[in-house]
Write a structure and sequence with these properties.
By secondary structure, the chain is α/β, with parallel strands linked by helices. The chain is built from 16 helices and eleven strands.
């Protein structure tokens, strides 16, 4: 007699306490018959991951911080849970990503620190749900070649890239990184962005905006670093670079469009004049559910668009004076991998400095440009080159920050 047992996907969620991680667990919560959580990871958010452990009972948890790992172990023991293995450190992240215990990895660690564990999941040939855009930004061709060599299944989680993916022909969905979009009649990818919280702010007032203002996104609920990147539109710049690698398309065939309502998540333009768009309410559970269940569709918990109460759609060209970081990222995409890796490293350092009120909002782009140009000619041939360049660029950017502080004094 045939069995009716449904095999559950075995999930490893990297960055489970962040907004993407928590949204992933919310989708999983709705489908206990389809998904089982095998491993979770976080940096240091003990209280959040403790609650996740109690609800989802993973086999193992990795805290990057050793002190946080010790505290989590203590809390679990006091709760009477001794079955969850708690580990710490960056190597443990790589280990759980590559472990045979899971077949699907949600790569949601923010920043370049997510590169190695994400790459480990790729090398292991898993279904990789890519929410960490920096993995492709910093290692591009190396990452995509690893996907091809291992037979891993790469599915984009960023709402924009997931939207583009959904608008492509089926044969192109089967070969991320090696798409032949021209052969499928695609003429252009239209990457939409809200413009962030300062879209309508006079450019001469940008220097005085605060971290708190920059972290108040008009449509999306995101972490602080990504929120600042949205305000500078560096987030869109990183997505621009990611789109180049994901869809094997020339930078000249990617266009950024300001769409304040964040209802159309991106579009694909075909040579016959058709434009296919993916729409929905701005909620990351939609692309997460799409990638988790692909090629099937499952309930994400997100209400469909109510077209009778949806604001009218607006579209605007990009003001590169207001958004110099986006211009920088597009330039880096054309210059090569060294520029992209250095720009990403510099941006992570400069955004942290802004959040710590060490520099002004407008100085983020100034520092990023100086760092990018310093390393633009560096050749990147392997993952060790990527790691070395990332380290060099961060050290140089920290040096720039100390000089900026000496010259300009304290930022407001």
């Amino acid at each position: 007699m045939a069995s009716n047992t449904v095999t559950k996907r075995q999930l490893c969620i990297l960055g489970s306490t962040g907004s993407i991680g928590q949204s992933t667990l919310d989708v999983v919560r709705r489908h206990p018959d389809k998904y089982q959580v095998i491993a979770l990871s976080a940096n240091s958010s003990v209280d959040i991951i403790f609650e996740q452990c109690i609800e989802f009972s993973p086999e193992s948890v990795v805290m990057v911080s050793a002190a946080a790992a010790a505290l989590l172990s203590e809390k679990l023991a006091l709760h009477g849970n001794t079955t969850i293995t708690v580990l710490s450190g960056t190597q443990a992240l790589v280990d759980i990503s590559a472990s045979e215990r899971s077949d699907t990895v949600m790569a949601a660690i923010v920043g370049a620190s997510g590169l190695m564990p994400t790459l480990a999941a790729v090398h292991a040939g898993k279904r990789v749900l890519l929410a960490n855009k920096e993995a492709l930004v910093t290692s591009g061709e190396i990452f995509i070649q690893a996907v091809k060599d291992s037979g891993a299944e790469l599915l984009p989680i960023d709402s924009e890239h997931n939207a583009i993916f959904q608008c492509l022909p089926e044969q192109e969905q089967q070969q991320p990184g090696f798409c032949q979009l021209k052969n499928s009649g695609v003429s252009k990818i239209l990457l939409t962005g809200s413009g962030g919280p300062f879209r309508a702010l006079d450019n001469d007032k940008l220097a005085e905006v605060t971290p708190e203002q920059a972290c108040t996104h008009p449509n999306w609920d995101m972490g602080r670093k990504i929120s600042v990147d949205s305000a500078t539109m560096m987030n869109k710049g990183l997505e621009f670079i990611e789109a180049k690698w994901l869809f094997n398309i020339a930078p000249e065939d990617i266009q950024v469009v300001i769409h304040p309502q964040s209802t159309i998540h991106s579009m694909v333009q075909y040579k016959d004049g058709s434009v296919l768009a993916q729409m929905g309410n701005p909620d990351m559970r939609t692309p997460i559910a799409h990638a988790l269940a692909f090629p099937e569709r499952i309930d994400s918990g997100v209400e469909p668009l109510d077209f009778f109460n949806t604001a009218s759609f607006e579209f605007q060209p990009v003001d590169f004076v207001k958004y110099p970081n986006l211009k920088l990222a597009i330039e880096a995409c054309k210059l090569g991998q060294g520029a992209c890796t250095a720009l990403n490293a510099a941006n992570e350092v400069s955004v942290e400095a802004f959040l710590n009120k060490q520099i002004k909002f407008t100085q983020i782009a100034e520092i990023n440009e100086t760092s990018m140009k310093k390393f633009v000619s560096i050749k990147v041939a392997c993952i060790e080159d990527v790691i070395a360049l990332d380290k060099q660029a961060r050290e140089y950017t920290h040096q720039l920050l100390s000089e900026v502080s000496l010259v300009s004094g304290d930022a407001p």
